[in-house]
């Protein structure tokens, strides 16, 4: 297991990331949801919701330029059981390039260019049904309800049916999938009111798992 040393992000990555994020936001504001990456503080608080050991499988969706990715890697997650999914191909290129720099051309976790609605088909086949965490910063709050539901359903479809959960970072103090309360337990686990804008982390656990256990 190769973990990421802390503070390895060089200045050119940090500057390039803000520039690219803003540029892509101008093109697709709803897809990005915000004009700047997550604050590192919010990213670390979100990453801390993941209880990872060497066997933990994690899929990050909406990885963007990789702030949350770096917070997860700094926790020492197993890079053989970690993958990122991102819809914007320029961000994928940036993230892949920055990971290469961080790992100095050694093996690094894969950046999958794809749509989170299609998770079952784009993550490694052997992971389907075994993912412990889907970690998301996708701006669900700005999306149509049907699209939010498809992304959440796609995440549920790859999760471990006994213990899997979705960790979602958002700028909304209200759950973006409140309408799914019948099926999903929704707990706000972080409230960072001092963030600009205030940031929140939600844990979504499917109720059907509880039924399966009883
Ligand atoms: C708020 S930004 C990501 C922030 C980033 N994780 C960070 O740490 O700063 C949301 C990201 O979700 C991506 N996204 C939106 N819809 C998506 C989808 N259906 N599948 C995959 N990625 C998506 C956007 O392209 C964007 O990069």
What order do the strands of the largest sheet run in, or round the barrel if closed? 3-2-1-4-5-7-6
Task: Give me the strand/helix succession.
Answer: HHHEHEHEHEHEEEH
**CATH superfamily placement:** Vaccinia Virus protein VP39
Largest sheet: 7 strands, mixed
Small-molecule binders: S-adenosylmethionine
Rounded Rg:
16 Å
- N-to-C terminal Cα separation, in Å? 36 Å
Number of helical segments?
8
* Low-pLDDT stretches: none
Number of domains: 1
- Describe the global form: globular
- In quaternary terms, these chains amount to single chain
Structural class: alpha/beta
Mean pLDDT: 92
Approximately what portion of the residues adopt beta-strand conformation?
15-25%
Helix content: 25-40%
Task: Tell me what the structure shows.
This protein is an alpha/beta fold. It has one domain (39-213): Vaccinia Virus protein VP39 (Rossmann fold, 3-Layer(aba) Sandwich). The protein contains eight helices and seven strands, in the order αααβαβαβαβαβββα. The chain has helices at 11-27, 29-32, 40-47, 67-74, 89-102, 119-122, 145-158, 207-213; strands at residues 58-61, 82-86, 111-113, 133-136, 165-170, 184-192, 199-206. A seven-stranded mixed sheet has the order 3-2-1-4-5-7-6, sandwiched between helices. The mean pLDDT is 92. The structure holds S-adenosylmethionine. Residues 31-34, 37-38, 43, 61-64, 67-68, 85-88, 91, 115-117, 137-139, 151 line the site of S-adenosylmethionine (SAM). S-adenosylmethionine binds next to helix 2, helix 4 and strand 2.
